[in-house]
Amino acid sequence: MKTSLEILRSLDSGPRGLVEARAEERLARFGENVLPAWRPVPWPRRFVRSLRDPFTSVLLCLGLVSAVVSAWGTACVILALVAVSCLLRSAEEHRADRSTAALRDLVATTATVVRRVSPDAAPLEREVPVADLVPGDVIRLGPGDLVPADVQVLRAGGLTVHQSALTGESAPVAKHPLDTPDPALAGAGPFAQPQLCFQGSSVTSGSGTAVIVATGGATRFAAAHDGRARQRGASAFDRSVQGISWTLIRFMLLTPPLVLMANAALRGRGLETLPFAVAVAVGLTPEMLPVIVTTALARGASRLARTSGVIVKRLPALHDLGAVDVLCLDKTGTLTEDRPVVAAAVDGADRPDPEVLRWAALSALWTLQLAELPAPDALDEAVLDAAEEAEGWGACAAYEGVAALPFDPVRRVATAVVRRPGRLGVHTLVTKGAVEAVLERCALGGDERERLLALADRKAESGLRLLAVARADRPARPGAYTPADERGLTFVGLVALRDVPAPSAAEALGVLARRGVTVKVLTGDHPGTAARACADLGLGLRTGAGTSAGTGAGTDGAAGSGSKAGSGTGADAGTAIEYGDVVTAELVDTLSDAELARVADRTTVFARCTPEHKARIVSALRAAGHTTGFLGDGVNDLPALHAADVGICPRNAVDVAREAADVVLAEKDLTAIDRAVLAGRHSSGNIATYLRITLSSNLGNVIAMLTAGLMLPFLPMLPAQVLVQNLCFDAAQLAFAFDRPAASALRRPAVLRSRDFLRFITGFGLLNAAADLATFGVLALALHNAAGDGEAAFHAGWFTENLLTQALVMVLLRTGRSAAERRAGGPLRAAAAGLAVVGVLLPLTPVGPLLGMSALPPLYYLLLGSVLGLYAVGLTSARRRYERRHPADDESGRDLRKTDAGR
User: Fold this and answer.
1) Where are the alpha helices (DSSP H) in 524-628?
2) Which residue in 1, 410, 3, 15 sits closest to 180, CA to CA?
3) From CA 197, how far away is CA 857, in angstroms rounded?
């Protein structure tokens, strides 16, 4: 890594900044310092992209084939359904895009740059737009500033940077210049380099001067969301629909040739049966599926946006949410509030001592005031809050501040000099900071120092952040205090801090677990910190004695504070987390993809993760067959957001994360995710119910139609009659998008498995075919002595029976429901009743003869009632048998109803 002098030389710059003319030349050469923008998808492209859905593509092909064989009615209906589906999906995704449109609020708009008018002129500081910055520019950084480009620090005074948006680390990181090469940094990653700051970071404290080394598309911020990173594989919805689609496509491709060959061989019919063969293929197709899917998902997405502020940008992502069985997330801001609190204050013998907290609060208070820091560090703020709650402010107010030495990343300590009441002529130095740094400044023997370090390590292993506190009395003097005075201190004790769990996290984790969603934590924090937060929330971590979960040492530095993190992890002081629960990134690097898939399946927490680690872990879980969701809000989360089946981010996430995510939450809250998961399962449950009922009914009709075509001297149903029948059934099926799914559908991840569907529709389809074949016998008996056109009467009889059986199926074949749920009214029952009325009355109206149907004798209706009664009994019996074979459905539904009632 280059030193400050070397980087300035390589950029042909200097501490006095660039000349204006040179900066303009570089701006023309490198371009503006802006991120690559994502252009909105135009309407025509969005509409055409909707045709990539397998069912929609199949319907489009069937519509075109129908037009080729002059079946214009069928062609028009099918093409209209395709157009409606594409319009609905395009409109909903356009609405989601408009809802998530926002300014790129992560990148600063102006920056303080040092430039010269001419080579001999004095350098001047001025504010310039961030877009005008170029490599080689020297800029000033202060508290609250957003880092406008990738820079290398030239000078710093207590500079700390919050780079969690890039790395996921919750604590600020100290930055300082590199004046001489440091071999220890040779193997460290870029984010571990103390002299480098990256676009997307923010200055939390201190000030500094830095030189820009990369701008625009050359920054790491831009590289994290380039075009290759945005590519993702097939989602759970895509895989499910494609599996079912190809199963049906095989049936549809086989049906027309079979119909043509059978009619040619047995009845001597030629190509005149081609329209009928196409109609049979259309009859097997759930042509309303694209409309049902789009309507159900759009309703769920609209309801989520209206009631919970959750925006679904990609409609299939709502189904993916319902299918998620593994949710990966960072702990900061989700499981914890990103706000530490004091857990304990102990002396050197590990005994509680309120004096330790009082001295730490004195150091934080007077360092903040005398050093003129803009705001207290998070750890200092926690110390001050704890002292106020402990009613220690009265004692602190009696002290008078004299001087302050703010936190320095090299010293890793902060010191306040105070005048104690009743101690004239004496100043007291109060120092706090990283444990090792404070102990180095204390007058301790080697054994005592090692004992205290071991004590600190044990506490760090339990996931606590530590501040060491020491003090010393010095004769009062008028001169300034320097770091050289921080010697010969007396050790006071340790202040232990822990992250605060989010109020709703524990309950939300329990609800997600009951819904079959496993939560895994992927964080950049220290293993102990992550493990402690998860154990506090009861996230399934196992504890045992002396079992290490991995190693990893690090230093967390912040303004006025620091802490040494030891190796290993634990759930509490003296206990460690077992290997199967916490894994560090160092171990991940040693595993192959197959090994990582096995480890990820049983691991709860991954610590010290880089963006690449997160993406690899998510991909390994997907490869193991899980449907994964990932919740992230920073640039460091982009690879994992793209690797997951569904990417989730809060509304206040960085702009590029919002653009990459499929679902945007109103806030970073697990409760909102639970509501989104429920909405996804609600929509998916309706889609699954539609598929089961429709495919089983369609399969039965096709089997009966093929059988009748071989038995009868005429076509069992005319193409126009097939078309009208499908239209009636399709109109009734729209009710599935508005139905309330069974409670059991909300209990488990909603997965559409083609093998399960094939088994279901085969059994109930054969039962439907048996009812149709029984109707043939009824028609033969009823029409035996009837006068008139037997062919038209047969068509009318079968038309009526088909619609009535489909209405029965819609009402009775809703598995996994309690008796009360099945008796409840709703749009589905109303649609089924309407379908039955049309089936009975249509052949009797003037429209019947136009479609080639005639009136039926009363005897037929009596016999048909008997067939339908037996069919209803058979359906009920078969459904009960199915439920007995799948008892988990009803049990899980009852469990869920109890859970929801309790909530």
Assistant:
1) 527-536, 585-588, 593-602, 611-623
2) 3
3) 88
Residue 488 zone, left/alpha/beta (φ > 0; ψ -120 to 50; rest): left
User: Which amino acid is located at 587 in the chain?
Assistant: L
Residue of 621 and 161 predicted with greater confidence: 621
Catalytic residues: 330
Residue type, 18: L
Strand, helix or coil for residue 556: strand
Who's near 598: CB < 8 A, 6+ residues apart?
Answer: 624
Interaxial angle between packed helices 790-812 and 754-782, expressed in degrees from 0 to 180 and rounded to the nearest 10: 140
Cβ contact 586:606 at 8 Å: no
Question: Using DSSP, how many helices (H) and how many strands (E) does the chain show?
Answer: 33, 26
Q: Which two tokens stand for residue 12?
A: 């042909």
Residues 6+ apart with CB under 8 A from 314: 93, 96, 662
Query: What is the token pair recorded at 168?
Result: 């996921």
Residues, the chain, total? Answer: 903
**CA 321 to CA 493: how far, in whole Å?**
49
Structure tokens at 369: 């005031």
Specify the pairing of strand 413-419 against strand 561-565: unpaired
What distances in angstroms separate CA 314 from CA 10, 44, 643, 645, 736, one per listed residue?
46, 17, 15, 12, 21
Q: In what order do the strands lie in the sheet with 336-346?
A: 336-346, 490-501, 465-475, 426-433, 413-419, 400-405
499: nearest Cα among 340, 385, 605, 335: 340
Q: What pLDDT sits at residue 300?
A: 86
- Contact in structure between 114 and 140 (CB atoms under 8 Å): yes
Tell me how crowded residue 616 is: count the other CB atoms within 10 A of its CB: 23
> Tens digit of pLDDT for each residue in 693-750?
888 887 887 788 777 767 777 777 776 777 788 778 878 888 888 887 767 667 777 7
CB 85 within 8 A of CB 291: yes
Q: Give bridge partners of residue 415 from the DSSP assignment.
A: 405, 431
Which comes out higher in pLDDT, residue 256 or 872? Answer: 872
Q: Is the pTM of this model over 0.70?
A: no
pLDDT, tens only, 440-460: 999 988 899 999 999 988 888
Q: Is the pLDDT of residue 485 over 60?
A: yes
CB 530 within 8 A of CB 516: no
Question: Three-state SS for 571?
Answer: coil
Is the pLDDT assigned to residue 331 strictly greater than 80? no
What CA–CA distance (Å, rounded) separates 39 from 144? Answer: 30
Residue 59 CA to residue 688 CA, distance in Å, equals: 19
**How much of the chain is in helix, strand and coil states, percent to nearest 5?**
55, 15, 30
Among 23-37, 342-356, 646-660, where is mean pLDDT lowest? 646-660
The per-residue pLDDT for 546 is 32
Looking at the DSSP bridge assignments, the partners of residue 111 are 128
- Cβ-based neighbours of 35, under 8 Å, separated by 6 or more: 104, 107, 216, 217, 219, 221, 222, 656
pLDDT surpassing 70 at residue 580: no
Residue type, 135: P
Structure confidence at residue 786 (pLDDT): 55
Backbone angles phi, psi at 826, to 5 degrees: 155, 180
